[in-house]
Each structure stands twice: as C-alpha cells, then as structure tokens.
Amino acid sequence: MKFIRLTIYVIILLFAVQLASAQFITPEDGVPAGISPPNLAMEAALDYRERARFPAWSQSVPPGQADPVLMKRLPSRQSLPHRDGDQLTVWASGIAFESGQTVTLYAQLEPAADNDDGLPGSRPGNKPGGDWTITGVIAGRNTGNLAEIKYERAGDGIFTATFTLPEFARPAIGQAENIGVFVTAQRPGSDDVKAVGGILYSHPAAELTGRYQDEVVDGDLVIRAQVEVHATGRFHLAGTLHSMDGTPVATGRMAEELEPGRHWMDLAFYGLALSERGLAGPYSLGSIILTTANDIPNALGPVVENAHRTRPYSIAEFHTRSFDRPDLLESAERLERAAAVREANRP
Fold first, then answer.
1. CB–CB of 201/177 below 8 Å?
2. Which residues touch 179 (CB under 8 Å, ≥6 apart)?
3. 80, 88 in Cβ contact below 8 A?
4. In whole angstroms, what is the distance from residue 48 CA to residue 45 CA?
5. With 90 as the cut, is the pLDDT of residue 80 above it?
6. Among 184, 186, 261, 273, which Cα is nearest to 4's?
7. What pLDDT shows up at residue 39?
8. Confidence band for 84, pLDDT divided at 50, 70 and 90
C-alpha cells in the first residue's frame, strides 16, 4: 500500500510541475524574438464554433481523423520515472475485459541515456548480474489480490504474461472494477524498477443482439440497434459511421433507461455531417459500443466493428442545417472577447 500511495503522489506531483511550467512561460524562457505566441483563446473559439454546428449527440469526424470510438479503446502505455533514468513501461492487450476472458500483459525495459562523458549510463543492458526478472501483482480495490504473475521475455525484448479474469471476482451485474497491475523488474546488483498499469473488469447489464435497421428521419441518418437488457439500468450507445472505403464520417451517441427485455435504441447521425462530406450511401456502422452507465467506472461492452451496412442513400436526402449549439457559441464569444483584449494590450 505504501508503494501505491507513493506512486499516486509521484504522478500528481509530476502533473503539477508540468502544468505550472506550461502556465508561466515568458519570452525569456526561450520564445524567439519577433515571434508571437499563438492566440490560444482565438484557436479555442474557432474550435467551439466548428463543434457548435453539430449537436452533442452527433459530431462530424474531420478528414484524416481516426474513428473516435476505436481510439478510446486503445490501451495506453504506463510508466514511472526511476532515479537511474531506467524506465519500465507496461500495457495490456485491451482496456475492458469480462469474466473468463484472457488479457495479455506486456512490459518493456527502456534504458537510460548514456552519461555526458560518453560512458554507459545506468542501463538495464549494462548492469551486472543475471537476466532481468519481471513479476506482477494483480489486485482490485474491492477484490484484493487476484494473482501473482511472472513475465516471459520474447525475442523482441518485450516481456509478456497472461491472466484470465476469474468468475469469483466478477463485479455485480451492471458494475465494473478497476484492476491494478503492479509490476516490478529485478536483477542482481540493480535497483528494482517499477510500473503500474491496469484494466477494467466489466460486467455489462445489456448486450447488442446483432440486429440493425436504418432510415432517414428529418434529414438525419438513424440506425436502430437491438439490445438485450438483463437488468434495469441506464445504457449509453455510441458508434461511428464510415463510408464504404472505411473512412470515418460522423459519430452518434444516445442514452436511455431500460428495463429487462429486448429493445431498439436509435443511433442518429446528423445530416449536415453527411451532406458536407458529399459521400452517398450505403454506409458502414464501422464501430458501435453499448455501455452500462449505472456507476463509476462504467461497465463497458465490447466494440463491434463493421456491425451493419445501410441501404443506399443519396446526398440530397440529408439536410444542411447548422445546429448552432447555444452553450458552445456563448463560450466562443467569451473567448473571442478575451482574445480581442489580448490583442489590444499587446506591446
């Protein structure tokens, strides 16, 4: 527990230092003479005005941007600083898992840079002793310790281990638990190098049945997804519409309270996002996820890719109306006033 508290403290401290340094940069800190720093207020205002053209429940995906639903489910790499400069980075094969599923856990030692005098620094590859041994403890706040694991080194230098989510530790239906993976790298003659990762042990209260319908409603494309609800709760549905060549076009989301049984949930994609891109149907429901949102953390369901192909549609069937969200437009106006004051007071 002391290690966990220390880890959290270090992360918070580093974040605070980075935030402070970002807020108090002056021309003397290295901004070249004659170059004005960007007007962040105006940039933010422009972003608000662009997003205000679409409702909160459906946004356009800018050309070249990846599928937002899929991006949110990419596992991130986690590491902690070490006094010697060495770093242990850990990650998992996914973010959310359910009972009986197996997660692959990864760990990689990254050496410190050489010293300024050209001599090797304190690096994993140069330290005395035998090979590195990497072990981990898997534990949840509610479930306690679930397993102790040992990582095996592969030919690419990345260490791996596997862990299957046990039924006895399964959260209650509609709930989820954050599971920590506390990893330690050890080698004779070297200090331990540590890192903390994690996964979500999820028990959704509903699932997608795989049945879909689509039609245009008031100039918006609506895809209806059938869901099987196992326990009363609040459910969020989110998805990304793709063109048939796999290009993300628009996102949609909705939330609804549902009782047990089969229901249809409407996922609408704002017509302006489709008409502006000039991409006629059919379209693909490139990604869709059903989440049980009864508590924090939410119980995430699996992401289903290429779930549905729509009927053909012409661009003329979709409207060109700007939504003009009042909250974002008001925020943009405030930022524009702040930007104007900044420009007026610039030397």
1. yes
2. 138, 139, 140, 143, 146, 198, 199, 200, 201
3. yes
4. 5
5. no
6. 184
7. 74
8. low
Confidence of residue 12 (pLDDT cuts 50, 70, 90): very low
Intra-chain end-to-end CA distance of the chain, in Å? 53
The secondary structure of 251-290 as a DSSP string is EEEEEEEE-SEEEEEEEEE-HHHHHHHT-PSP-EEEEEEE
Let me know: does 57 contact 253? Beta carbons within 8 Å.
yes
Give me 129's structure tokens.
């002793």
Position of tokens 């094969």? 93
Name the one residue in this structure whose structure tokens are 């959704």: 204
121-130 b/e with 16+ CB inside 10 Å = b? ebbbeebeee
| Mean confidence (pLDDT) of the chain | 85
Distance CA 104, CA 203 (A): 19
Tens-place pLDDT, residues 191-217: 889 999 999 999 999 999 999 999 999
How many whole angstroms separate alpha carbon 179 and alpha carbon 139?
A: 6
Q: The pTM is what?
A: 0.79
Phi–psi pair at 326, nearest 5 degrees: -60, -40
Name residues whose C-beta falls within 8 Å of residue 288's C-beta, 6 or more positions apart in sequence.
69, 208, 225, 237, 238, 239, 240, 267, 303, 304, 307, 308
Rounded to 10 deg, the angle between the 326-344 and 40-52 helix axes is 160
Q: Is the dihedral of CA 274, 278, 283, 288 positive or negative?
A: negative
The DSSP-derived string for 55-87 is: -TTEEE--TTPPPHHHHHTSPPPEEE--TTS-E
Cα dihedral 165/171/176/177 (nearest 10)? -70
Answer for the pair 85, 122: CB distance below 8 angstroms, yes or no.
yes
pLDDT above 70 covers a percentage of the chain that reads 82
335 and 42 Cβ atoms separated by less than 8 Å: yes
Closest alpha carbon to 305 in 99, 70, 68: 70
pLDDT digits (tens, 9 = 90+) for 137-179: 999 988 899 999 999 998 788 999 999 999 999 999 999 999 9
